[in-house]
Amino acid sequence: AQSVTQPDARVTVSEGASLQLRCKYSSSVTPYLFWYVQYPRQGLQLLLKYYSGDPVVQGVNGFEAEFSKSNSSFHLRKASVHWSDSAVYFCAVSIPGGYKVVFGSGTRLLVSP
Amino acid sequence: NAGVIQTPRHKVTGKGQEATLWCEPISGHSAVFWYRQTIVQGLEFLTYFRNQAPIDDSGMPKERFSAQMPNQSHSTLKIQSTQPQDSAVYLCASSSTGGTEVFFGKGTRLTVV
């Protein structure tokens, strides 16, 4: 079965600084990978997804992520964060042809002024 | 497209009472999921429907929880004899096919007093 690990429960960065949120996955096959963001009192919203092809995928609001098969990782990056990026970020994985999307435990991002 | 609609947004029940949560998936989506979110357990998969048929309820507590999808436009999650430990945010999600990106509703926050 597939699984996802987000090793950092909380990350604090200064506004304007760069960001990397880490995600490691475990899967017997090359999976589908996702990053979602959750703002307070909201559901999860898709930031970006990887199905195949170019390992660097672009998402909304300047976010990007890079798939690494050798490292079993799908880290999320942003060049310059804004205070409005403060939220909880979830990495998720599914198996092509399967149905279940498995979520990591989430990383709470706080952007300080 | 109004997205996935969940009602009510908040529900308070007394211990031992029944709670019914409603979900309207995105029109045309064949896959519907229910998740439960708590601080301690994070995002937990509860159950999955495909084309209205129950496919996987492996995450559902067996004794008091039930889910149905009587038609393609809505699903319900029913909790009988609610207990304080059932307090959580219940999220409904849908996707065009299982395993691909899922779209979440804003959730129902259930509080059992």
Task: Write the SSE topology.
The complex is a heterodimer of chains A (113) and B (113).
Chain A: E1 3-5, E2 10-14, E3 19-21, E4 24-26, E5 32-38, E6 44-50, E7 56-58, E8 64-68, E9 73-78, E10 87-94, E11 102-103, E12 107-112
Parallel strand pairs in A: 2-12
Antiparallel strand pairs in A: 1-4, 3-9, 5-6, 5-10, 7-8, 8-9, 10-11, 10-12
Chain B: E1 5-7, E2 10-13, E3 19-24, E4 31-38, E5 42-50, E6 53-56, E7 65-71, E8 74-79, E9 88-95, E10 103-104, E11 108-112
Parallel strand pairs in B: 2-11
Antiparallel strand pairs in B: 1-3, 3-8, 4-5, 4-9, 5-6, 7-8, 9-10, 9-11
Structure description:
- The complex is a heterodimer of chains A (113) and B (113).
- Chain A is mainly beta and 113 residues long.
- Chain A has one domain: Sandwich (Immunoglobulin-like).
- Chain A is built from no helices and twelve strands.
- Chain A has strands at residues 3-5, 10-14, 19-21, 24-26, 32-38, 44-50, 56-58, 64-68, 73-78, 87-94, 102-103, 107-112.
- In chain A, the strands form three sheets. In chain A, strands 2, 5, 6, 10, 11 and 12 form a six-stranded mixed sheet that branches.
- Chain A starts with a strand and ends with a strand.
- The mean pLDDT of chain A is 94.
- Chain B has 113 residues and is mostly beta strands.
- Chain B has a single domain, classed as Immunoglobulins (Immunoglobulin-like).
- Chain B contains no helices and eleven strands.
- In chain B, the strands form two sheets. In chain B, strands 2, 4, 5, 6, 9, 10 and 11 form a seven-stranded mixed sheet that branches. A four-stranded antiparallel sheet of chain B has the order 1-3-8-7, with no helix packed on it.
- Chain B is globular, with a radius of gyration of 13 Å.
- Chain B starts with a strand and ends with a strand.
- The chains are: A mainly beta (113), B mainly beta (113).
- The interface between A and B is medium-sized, with 23 and 25 residues.
